Amino acid sequence: MTMSSSSSPSSYYPKEVIDPHHHFLDTANNSFQTFLNTIATNVTYLPRDYTRDVIQPLAKVGVTMIGTVHVEAMPDNGVDEVAWVEQQMMTTVTDDMTSSSNYVKGYVASANLTHEDIEQQLQLLLKTTTPNKLRGIRWIVDCVGKYMEGGQSTATHVGTKRHDGIDYLKLPEFERGLALLEKFNLSFDLQCAPIQLVESAAALFGKYQSLKVCIHLRDSSYVSHSPFAQDGH
Predict the structure, then answer these.
(1) Where are the strands (E) in 78-216, listed by range?
(2) DSSP 34
(3) Which long-range contacts does 154-159 make (Cβ < 8 Å, 24+ apart)?
């Protein structure tokens, strides 16, 4: 693209944006982030940091952040995480702001869909958030066996250490939880290994035509190790 002498870089930016995926965390102080603290020890990233790093730089070039979606960060308790973020967003996020700046407009929360009380958990999440802000659920299921420590690269996500190599996509309890998401009109963020899409995910989610699914593939490099990659898929 050629820029004319009268054009400025900001003229090519959108006027408004939405960030559909970000996290807040404080593993040093939050009791519901003990698992995450084993991965990201004593890490803090709060709304004031996001405002400094993202919102203010965008504003300087004329771009307004009209809203964000906070995505779960492997908490021990999804309800506690959402309640904490809601509380964080009610406070002043920068020194030069005198009023609250609640730019989080939606949540993709954490919930283990295999739990017996999953329906009660979903109801509590809906009550914990501002009306209509809970948009979906994520539970990381990238699993091709147990997580390999010591830097060995597989498509199994560290988050699956919470269920130690069990492929949730093949559990009837997980399917029961999916049906409840459809009932409550919540989406599911599917973060799985590429081979799982073929082996189980496609057939499983095909049963729920009204369920909205957002697919995350962790790393395209893992696709090359999948059998169907040899056929150019």
Answers:
(1) 104-110, 134-138, 187-191, 213-216
(2) H
(3) 155/193, 155/194, 155/195, 155/218, 155/219, 155/222, 155/225, 156/193, 157/191, 157/218, 158/39, 159/74
Query: What CA–CA distance (Å, rounded) separates 160 from 40?
Result: 16
99: closest CA among 91, 110, 107? 91
Phi, psi of 137 (to 5 degrees): -130, 140
Which pTM was predicted?
Answer: 0.84
Decide if 24 contacts 82 (C-beta within 8 A): no
Closest CA to 218 of 200, 195, 199: 195
Phi and psi of 139, rounded to 5°?
-140, 110
What's the pLDDT band for 226 if we cut at 50, 70, 90? very low
C-alpha to C-alpha distance for 233 and 229, rounded to whole angstroms: 5
**DSSP for residue 1:** -
Residues 6+ apart with CB under 8 A from 45: 23, 24, 25, 26
Closest C-alpha among 112, 136, 139 to residue 184: 136
| Distance of alpha carbon 79 from alpha carbon 110, whole angstroms | 8
Considering the chain, what is the average pLDDT of its residues? 85
Closest C-alpha to 111, from 96, 120, 121: 121
